[in-house]
């Protein structure tokens, strides 16, 4: 079936003019990195833009970061597989982000603390060993989380431009995009990220709205709803339906991920820490609740439109993706649903317009990668290398180590994207790999900020407990599920294993386990009244 999808990609409307539009945009982004390099003169300006970002620039930058091409791709995949029921993820994200903007939960006191990274707060509240362990887990889980970003973004370009999804096309696109992002992120740091994110926000918003309008004009509102109902039934609209793509446990898992996306995830928190005041943080999050909702809704809708388009106009492709009226042949796996939306966009948009939208998507790709690369590299330097250094690191040394880390992480995600072949949806992969970090982070941040009895020993143990989320990765989850089912004397088939131990169950179980460990150990091993946490900000210029 992959051969069929590869052949179908050649029908795209992408032309030489569209390549020129994309190329011009990429050159502009590179020029920005070169221009702003001179302003990255200190560690604070390099990783936090001098903590002087205003509300509207912060909103645009946060949206540009969180609405990456990988977001568009995994959201479209969810819409393609789950229909309108996938909208619950967007609605929950918007509600939770607005609530945090009203209350300032976690993000406001973090900004008041004046820290540059989350593990730096660990150091101040719980001590150096917790900061170092937290930095290692944060960087490790975060880098693993973004391991498929490059591959998924490159899959969009391959699909929409008509390149073959087999052979060397995908690795070559991955290499070219990575080289571009590394260049301007290494040069300009957070200042470059903020400036390019703002431009990318404008381009991306235009591209999303234009493509959405064209999709509705092509397919028609009533037709879209009727086709989803005919194809998926009630499960295409109600996320709580057990026979659908989601279910009650999944919805609960998504509600917690709404908190994670804005109050715990380091790239979003980095924007809060870079804003000019806590009032700006709250106001920015309240406005960002709108964009956080839209960043999911629009790509979900694209995936739904791709489903409708293939069912009605390309029945052979619909069958290849496993959604057509004709069943797949026995022992045949459906084609990768990630290619559905790019193939749809390549057929829907006319020449010229597809170049603008593709530039917007590449903008989204870049705005995510630059922020994530800078975030994880700064954590490695600020919270692992610097605390372990026998003498204080100067500004130039810190910036140099950060730039080296960016390059090393970039090489890793290139290799991981080529060799990892897990079977989970990309969104579920990201949720479970992120849980390796954020389950412990939730306990440490909420406990440290709002519970006086939280102890350093409890924090240390909670970080380790959170790593149990790695069981949710497909290659690990499946054999673990079979062992558990065998111990219970039940069916150990692949289908039974997948139903028994889902990513949602692993995620919710890890949250509960980590919180219990944190509270119990903190009560059993309280901190000495005379303990003075280390001030991890020493040496930061």
State the helix count: 24
**Can you summarize the main beta sheet?**
none
Helicity, in percent? over 70%
Mean pLDDT: 80
What is Rg?
23 Å
Which secondary-structure class do the elements indicate? mainly alpha
Shape label: globular
Low-confidence stretches: 40-59, 535-541
Strand percentage lies at under 5%
Strand count: 0
Work out the oligomeric state of the chains in this entry: single chain
Spatial gap, N to C terminus: 55 Å
Order of helices and strands: HHHHHHHHHHHHHHHHHHHHHHHH
Key terms:
mainly alpha; disordered C terminus; 541 residues; single chain
How is this structure best described in words?
- The chain has 541 residues and is mainly alpha-helical.
- The chain has helices spanning 2-9, 16-36, 43-48, 55-66, 69-82, 87-103, 107-113, 118-126, 128-145, 149-161, 169-219, 221-232, 248-264, 266-274, 278-313, 315-320, 340-348, 353-388, 395-419, 426-450, 456-466, 474-487, 494-500, 503-524.
- Helix 5 packs across helix 15 (278-313) and helix 13 (248-264) crosses helix 24.
What order do the helices and strands come in, and which of them pair?
Blueprint: H1 2-9, H2 16-36, H3 43-48, H4 55-66, H5 69-82, H6 87-103, H7 107-113, H8 118-126, H9 128-145, H10 149-161, H11 169-219, H12 221-232, H13 248-264, H14 266-274, H15 278-313, H16 315-320, H17 340-348, H18 353-388, H19 395-419, H20 426-450, H21 456-466, H22 474-487, H23 494-500, H24 503-524
């Amino acid at each position: 079936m992959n051969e069929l999808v590869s052949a179908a990609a050649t029908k795209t409307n992408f032309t030489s003019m569209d390549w020129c539009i994309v190329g011009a945009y990429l050159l502009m982004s590179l020029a920005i990195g070169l221009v702003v390099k001179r302003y990255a003169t200190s560690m604070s300006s390099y990783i936090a833009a001098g903590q002087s970002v205003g509300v509207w620039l912060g909103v645009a930058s946060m949206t540009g970061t969180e609405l990456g091409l990988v977001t568009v791709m995994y959201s479209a995949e969810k819409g393609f597989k789950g229909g309108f029921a996938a909208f619950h993820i967007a609605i929950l994200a918007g509600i939770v982000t607005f609530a945090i903007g009203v209350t300032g939960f976690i993000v406001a006191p973090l900004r008041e603390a004046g820290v540059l990274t989350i593990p730096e707060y660990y150091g101040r509240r719980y001590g150096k060993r917790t900061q170092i362990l937290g930095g290692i887990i944060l960087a490790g889980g975060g880098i693993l989380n973004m391991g498929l970003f490059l591959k998924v973004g490159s899959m969009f370009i391959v699909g929409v431009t008509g390149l073959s999804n087999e052979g060397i096309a995908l690795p070559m696109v991955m290499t070219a995009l990575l080289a571009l992002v590394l260049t301007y992120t290494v040069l300009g740091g957070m200042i470059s990220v903020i400036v390019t994110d703002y431009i990318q926000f404008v381009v991306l918003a235009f591209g999303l709205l234009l493509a959405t309008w064209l999709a509705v004009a092509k397919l028609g509102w009533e037709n879209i709803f009727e086709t989803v109902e005919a194809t998926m039934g009630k499960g295409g609209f109600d996320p709580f339906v057990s026979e659908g793509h989601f279910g009650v446990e999944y919805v609960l898992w998504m509600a917690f991920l709404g908190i994670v996306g804005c109050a715990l995830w380091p790239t979003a928190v980095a924007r809060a820490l870079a804003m000019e005041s806590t009032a700006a943080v709250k106001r920015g999050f309240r406005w960002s609740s709108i964009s956080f909702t839209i960043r999911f809704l629009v790509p979900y809708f694209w995936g739904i439109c791709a489903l409708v388009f293939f069912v009605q106009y390309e029945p052979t492709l619909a069958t290849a993706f496993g959604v057509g009226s004709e069943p797949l042949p026995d022992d045949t796996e459906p084609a990768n649903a990630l290619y559905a939306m790019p193939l749809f966009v390549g057929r829907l948009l006319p020449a010229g317009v597809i170049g603008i939208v593709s530039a917007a998507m590449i903008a989204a790709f870049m705005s995510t990668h630059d922020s994530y690369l800078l975030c994880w590299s700064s954590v490695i330097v600020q919270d692992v290398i610097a605390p372990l250094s026998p003498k204080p690191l100067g500004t130039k040394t810190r910036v140099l180590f950060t730039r080296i880390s960016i390059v090393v992480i970039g090489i890793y995600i290139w290799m991981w994207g080529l060799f990892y072949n897990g079977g989970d949806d990309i969104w579920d992969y990201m949720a479970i790999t992120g849980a390796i970090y954020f389950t412990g982070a939730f306990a440490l941040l909420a406990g440290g900020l709002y519970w006086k009895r939280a102890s350093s020993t409890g924090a240390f143990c909670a970080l380790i407990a959170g790593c149990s989320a790695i069981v949710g990765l497909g290659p690990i989850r499946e054999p673990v599920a079979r062992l558990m089912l065998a111990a219970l004397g039940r069916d150990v088939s692949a289908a039974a294993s997948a139903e028994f131990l889902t990513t949602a169950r692993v995620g919710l179980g890890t949250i509960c386990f980590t919180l219990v460990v944190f509270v119990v150990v903190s009560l059993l091993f309280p901190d000495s009244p005379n303990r003075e946490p280390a001030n991890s900000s020493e040496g930061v210029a």
